[in-house]
Write a structure and sequence with these properties.
Layout: H1 4-21, H2 25-45, H3 47-58, H4 68-75, H5 78-96, H6 111-129, H7 134-146, H8 155-158, H9 161-170, H10 178-190
Helix pairs in contact: 1-2, 1-6, 1-10, 2-6, 4-6, 6-7, 7-9
């Protein structure tokens, strides 16, 4: 039997692999959004249980965040967050619906937008399961190194310095460069 969280994990891991393989970002986006939507539903159904667990963990009711949006509002600078949500919904609706605009077209999105969508799905999944797959941990570390300006806390506050240093060794310029992503993918799949 496959549970909802099993399905969400598989969708998200595949989205991350497609991202690092630097191919089919549209499918990667769709899978990441689907994973996030599944975990949203499970989180909503287990809200009371998750709230109690998170309250015990953080100790302050004002710091208990059960929504990926609440969490990212704290992590991502406001000037980037609003723009991301606007773009996020635009693409999500375009990919899900054709009843009102079957001939619509949309401009391609940038890899940075996809990276943020994947981050939302990861944060949701980890909140629900308290588990990181190799793909998720690799992606999260890459994101912290690739986009430090988007985060309110320093990377060293989020991940051990050794892991950050190792990820930095894979990035010699543009973190979205095809060869960089392929190097990270190869390292991830060797684990």
């Amino acid at each position: 039997m496959i549970t909802k969280t099993d399905a969400a994990e598989r969708q998200l891991n595949t989205a991350i692999r497609l991202f690092f393989e630097n191919r089919d970002h549209l499918s990667s986006y769709t899978l990441a959004v689907a994973s996030r939507e599944v975990t949203d539903g499970v989180i909503k159904s287990r809200r009371s249980e998750l709230y109690q667990r998170e309250l015990a963990r953080v100790g302050d009711p004002l710091k208990v965040l059960l929504s990926h949006r609440e969490e990212f509002e704290l992590l991502i600078k406001p000037e980037f967050y609003k723009d991301f949500l606007t773009r996020y919904h635009k693409w999500q609706n375009f990919l899900k619906h054709a009843d009102e605009d079957p001939d619509a077209e949309i401009e391609p999105f940038k890899a940075k937008v996809l990276a943020l969508v994947i981050m939302l799905a990861i944060k949701n999944y980890v909140l629900l399961t308290q588990h990181w797959t190799t793909e998720m941990a690799t992606f999260f570390t890459w994101f912290v190194v690739a986009e430090p300006q988007l985060l309110k806390s320093a990377p060293e506050d989020v991940i051990a310095n050794k892991v950050i240093a190792q990820m930095r060794s894979y990035i010699s310029g543009d973190p979205y460069d095809r060869s960089t992503l392929e190097t990270i993918y190869s390292a991830m799949t060797e684990i």
